Amino acid sequence: MKPDVEYLLRIADTALIHAQRLSEWCGHAPILEEDIALTNMALDLLGQARALLTHAGVLEGLGHDEDQLAFLRDERDYRNVTLVELPLKRGGGDFADTMLRNFFVATWFKALWQRLQASSDGELAAIAAKALKEVRYHQQHAGDWVVRLGDGTEESAARLRAALDRAWPYVAELFEADAVDDAAMQSRLGPRCSELRDDWLADVKAVFDEALLALPADTPFRSTGRSGAHSEHLGYMLAEMQHLQRAYPGGAW
């Protein structure tokens, strides 16, 4: 796979799979306002994924459109970070897991889109400029909830700390740079993921201070979704997500 295509797929797939997980709250959020907010954020992410997948298909040059890249690839062809594919209600997970994960991912996207506005690829720079406006709201919304839960009741704070314990081991993958990142940096397509860490940590620490939450120590565990080695959860998600397209190839409304 061309390095520039893989670089775009890593961003697009992270947005796509994160959107799919957030959309699972549709009709199930604790209050109606959050039901609507989470669904709208999922739609924003889906729009970002569509734009990136379309552009990746053009750069790939094999005639694949956004639908083919979203629905007709196999599990190991996806390049999303593992964090976004984990079930939001696994191992005792709840609404706190959703808000904390959304805050982590939105903060990462914010740092990434800011830098991609200067991409040597004009189409990618334009996508980034639009996406940045959306993700700033995602970050603020989720960050407000992190503060509300962390500085709320004993119960809400305990749930947030438990959510942090579940999510934190997967955070390191957001900043793992490799040869694909090096190629993107050299061509000025985009930054290495490792370059996003300082800005991400600064934003996260500011919110954690308000939420009375301490940053955990780094862990030796490393997830590997960006290289195509996923958790057991992605396959189940894709089976549901891809069912109609695989059952009726090329189907259209």
Structure report:
This protein has helices at 3-23, 32-60, 66-71, 95-116, 122-150, 154-167, 179-187, 197-210, 233-241, 243-247. By secondary structure, the protein is mainly alpha-helical. It has one domain (3-214, 223-247): Ferritin, core subunit, four-helix bundle (Ferritin, Up-down Bundle), CATH 1.20.1260.10. Helix 2 packs antiparallel against helix 5 (122-150) and helix 5 packs parallel to helix 8. It is globular and about 55 Å long. The two termini are 32 Å apart. The relative contact order is 0.15.
- The amount of beta strand, in percent, is under 5%
Helix share, percent: 55-70%
- Count of DSSP helices? 10
- Radius of gyration, in Å, reads 18 Å
Q: Which structural class do the helices and strands define?
A: mainly alpha
Largest sheet data:
none
Q: What average pLDDT do the residues reach? A: 95
What are the segments in which pLDDT stays under 50 over at least 5 consecutive residues?
none
Euclidean distance between termini CA atoms: 32 Å
